[in-house]
Structures are given as C-alpha cells and as structure tokens.
Design goal:
Helices cover about 20% and strands about 25% of the residues. By secondary structure, the chain is an alpha+beta fold. The protein folds into three domains: about 10-75, Alpha-Beta Plaits, CATH 3.30.70; about 80-365, Rossmann fold (3-Layer(aba) Sandwich); about 380-495, Jelly Rolls, CATH 2.60.120.
C-alpha cells in the first residue's frame, strides 16, 4: 500500500454502485432454504464453498427469520488515496531493489506456480502486458478510474517480462492471473472475496493482497482460510501506518497470511511501514518503478512507495521458489520465505522487520521445513465437518483406533492454536502427551472454543476419563509457550 494508500470503509456511492446490499454467510444447517430465499430476492452467490451471498439489504430480515444467517454485514467499498507518483525512465537500472533481494544473482525459471493479483484491473494494452504469455484475466478488467492504476502497478512488480521494454518483474515469466476487485472504480469487499476464492479454485498458487483496513472482516478471513486450506500461499501488505501508531490492519494481521513490510535504499525499515507482531519479513518499498496504465500516464511508468509493492515482490519471489522447489507445500513455503530472510534489525525476529529482508538466493537453497498438517485448525469450525469446510479434518483417533500422533508447529502470530478431534472411549482415560515448548489441554467438543477444559496439561500430559456409557469426541488444544514452537503430540487410551 502506498503511503496514504488507505483502505477505508465507505458507504455505497449512489452514482457508482447498485442498490444497497449486504454480504451474508448462510448457516450450513439452513443452507438450502437460505439459498432459495436469497435467490428469490435477487441475491448473487459469491463463494459457493463458504455459503457467501450478496443479498439486497431489505431481504436479510427474511433470511434471519428462517434461521439461515450465520453472518451478515453491509457490503463495504474500499476507497484509496494514492501517494503522489513520480515519472521515471522505464529502465532496469532504476530498479535498485533487484540487487538488494538477489534477483540479479540467480536466473529465474520459466512459467510454473501461478501468482494471482486480487486488486484493481490490469491494463492489458500496456507494453509490459500486451501479448505477454501466461497472462490470464479471471474477470473483466477496468483501469480508467483514478484509483484503478494499482493493479497494473502491483502486477508489473511481479511479472513485467524481460522483453527489452521498460522494467523487469521479480519473476518475469511467471504465470500471472489477475482478478479485478474494483467493479465500480474502487476496491469492493465482495469482489475481493470472490477473487480470493476463484484463485484458490484454480489450484495451489500464490495470492497477492496489497490492500487492507482496520476493521476485522470475518468473511474476508474465511476466504483467506479457504485459500490456505486449498493449498495456496496468501501474501499481504503490512500497511503504511508506521507514523500513525501502527494500528492493527487486515488482512495482514490474520493467521496464515505472509505479511510484508517495506525497506528503503539504505536497507532499513521504511518509516511509514507498519510495525506489528504479524510482520513476517520485509522487502524494498521506496521509489519502486512500476508500470502505469496508459490512461493514467502517457509515459506508462511511475515511481511509487509503499508496502503495496513490497508484498508483490515477495509474492513473485515465492512463486519462483515454489516453481523451483515444487515438492514444498504451502506451510513449508511460508516458513522458507520468512526464515530465509536476511536479518537486518534486532537479532532474530522483531516487529519492524519480522525475520528480515527478502533474500531470493537464500530462499532457493534454504533447508526444507517439516510440513504443518491440518491447517488451518484454530477453531472448531475449521476442523468439524460442515463447519467452514464441508469435509472438515479427520480426527487423530477414532473408534477402534484410540492411539495416534502428529508432529506440527505453532506460532503466536501466524498459527496461535492447533485443535484436533480425538476419540475418548467409554470408561477409559485418554492421555495427550506433548514434547516441545507448548501447553496442552483437552476440551469438550463444542462449536465454541471458549468452553472450559476437561483437563489441563501437567508436565506435558493432559488426561481425561470418559465416565459415560458411550465414546465421545473431544478436542486436544496446543498453544505455544514462547513465540513459536515445534511439537509432537501422542495420544493413548487405557482403562486406568
């Protein structure tokens, strides 16, 4: 996000938007009834897998009376105020950042893992994109409004080709997919959610989100969790509120989002870059040459600042690494990208630079981390069948198989809780043994994670006797003691 590139909640503008609408997530138990009522009212299904609809506001009350509403909220428009841009010659020598992140020390691969930009539209007539191979427009693109230059700028940082014209992106031959989330000339919540889901449906890839705001948005979070469960890596800009107290911003603050701050030419964190415990790494974000829609600037190029341009640098680099190392899953890629970064602040992790500055050569050779299974699994809705995901997650133990184990990791910011379903046989004691710097509790099976514990771990063991006549499922909950921890959970059941 450019300095002062602020995503704010705005009322629908009568001249630019359709009739007032709400975004509604249907209650799974009443999904068929809710879909029928929403469709009858002229609603539009946005994300089938998550039960998210756009419904005229006047029709929401009828859905509530039918018990079909899980979440409803007025649909937001996102307004942007761009920083003043500076015209520049479209030459690679102006791209100072390439040396900083090591993009000029290793040869990028051909097309491989895709990168999807969910933003304003792409100017497909621009010399950087006209005729560019492996460029896919996932919906109609518009770039004529004042705030519709951002998507072209972001896309050029990722994938401007090495074609002898203008600039070169971090991954010039990337498979680039673009979803225009500005149907009325301004970023729109429902359209952004649709774009994230569409990118996830296309198969595992990298999704770049160079937008954000201070309001927690559960439907946006659900879309991101859907993408993560589907195997994709979500990369987001940290924000530009470093000089304004660094208020918490979304989607950057959500778990499982690779959050990117900005640095300047001196290799220091830029003064405007948001400081937060959710920053994972940083990348150059000052005086970044980008492609500009021709309708906005006849030269086709400007220089821009902001974490909006640090984020696609990391997104493009992540797709490069993933293409070269296709055996990684998204949980491993997440760790590779942040832990391979070059430390530039306090030793180890810090809230300004995260783990450090993007280092592409180091990421390409960094050791392979262990996989982190069953993610996301922070709350019951993540793992229960017909919760957020239709299939849920398989229990670690079940009838006839009351022993099991799993190795995983937790992180206070990016993966604060791991929750597993486990089988507690009738009349037996289920024991959860953990190794690692974590706590363990056994919780009753509930749609709410706020239920009191059945047992809390002592010396790495939590034990619960099921005194009932029937076996039941309960939850094993793991949390980190320090900032992060690897652990192993082992489950056993016995009469005593």
């Amino acid at each position: 996000m450019t300095p002062r590139f602020l995503i704010v909640i705005a009322a629908f503008l009568a001249s630019a938007a359709p009739a007032r609408a709400d975004l509604v997530q249907l209650e799974p138990s009443h999904a068929q009834t809710g879909a029928k009522l929403a469709r009858r009212a002229g609603g539009a299904e946005l994300v089938r897998e998550l039960g998210i609809w756009r419904v005229p506001t006047y029709a929401v009350e009828e859905l509530r009376r039918a018990g079909a509403v899980r979440i409803s909220e007025p649909e937001h428009l996102y307004a942007t105020t761009a920083a003043a841009a500076q015209a520049t010659d479209p030459l690679v020598p102006t791209q100072w950042w390439r040396t900083i992140v090591g993009a000029d020390r290793v040869d990028p691969p051909g097309p491989g893992k895709p990168v999807t930009v969910v933003d304003s539209g792409l100017d497909i007539t621009h010399p950087e994109f006209a005729g560019r191979p492996n460029t896919f427009l996932l919906n109609k693109q518009t770039t004529t409004e004042d705030d519709e230059d951002h998507g072209t700028e972001v896309s050029s940082v990722i994938a401007a080709p090495n074609n002898g014209v203008g600039i070169v992106g971090v991954y010039p031959e990337a498979v680039l997919r673009v979803w225009d989330a500005s149907p009325f000339g301004i970023l729109n919540e429902g359209a952004a959610i649709q774009g994230i889901a569409e990118a996830a449906r296309e198969g595992p890839g990298v999704i770049n989100l160079s937008f954000g705001g201070e309001d927690d948005d559960p439907l946006l979070e659900d879309a991101i969790m859907f993408a993560y469960r589907s195997g994709s890596l979500v990369v987001a800009a940290a924000g530009n509120e470093g000089l304004e107290g660094s208020p918490k911003g979304y989607p950057a603050a959500y778990p499982h989002v690779l959050t990117v701050g900005a640095t300047n030419q001196s290799g220091r964190v830029a003064s405007f870059s948001t400081i937060a415990g959710t920053v994972d790494l940083v990348a150059p974000g000052v005086q970044i040459p980008v492609a500009e829609p021709l309708a906005q600037d006849a030269t086709g190029y400007v220089q821009v600042p902001g974490t909006s341009f640090s984020s696609p640098m990391v997104a493009g680099a992540a797709a490069w690494v993933w293409t070269t190392r296709p055996d990684l899953d998204n949980t491993q890629l997440f760790e590779v990208m942040r832990r391979s970064a070059m430390d530039i602040g306090e030793p180890g992790f810090d809230h300004a630079a995260g783990y450090g500055l993007l280092d592409i050569p180091n990421a390409l050779s960094f050791r392979t981390p262990t996989r982190d299974p069953q993610e996301p699994n922070e709350v019951p809705a993540d793992i229960e069948p017909h919760g957020l995901f239709a299939s849920g997650e398989a229990p670690l133990t079940q009838r006839g198989h009351a022993a099991g184990s799993v190795s995983a990791r937790v992180d206070r910011s990016e993966d604060p809780v791991d929750l597993y379903r486990i089988w507690a046989p009738a009349g037996e004691v289920i024991r959860a043994h953990v190794t690692g710097q974590v706590t363990v509790r056994l919780l009753p099976r509930s749609r709410s994670s706020k239920a009191g514990p059945l047992a809390a771990g002592k010396r790495g063991v939590a034990a619960y006797r099921n005194s009932g006549k029937h076996g039941i499922y309960v939850y094993a909950e793991i949390r980190p003691i320090a900032r992060e921890a690897d652990y192993r959970l082992r489950l056993t059941a016995a009469r005593r």
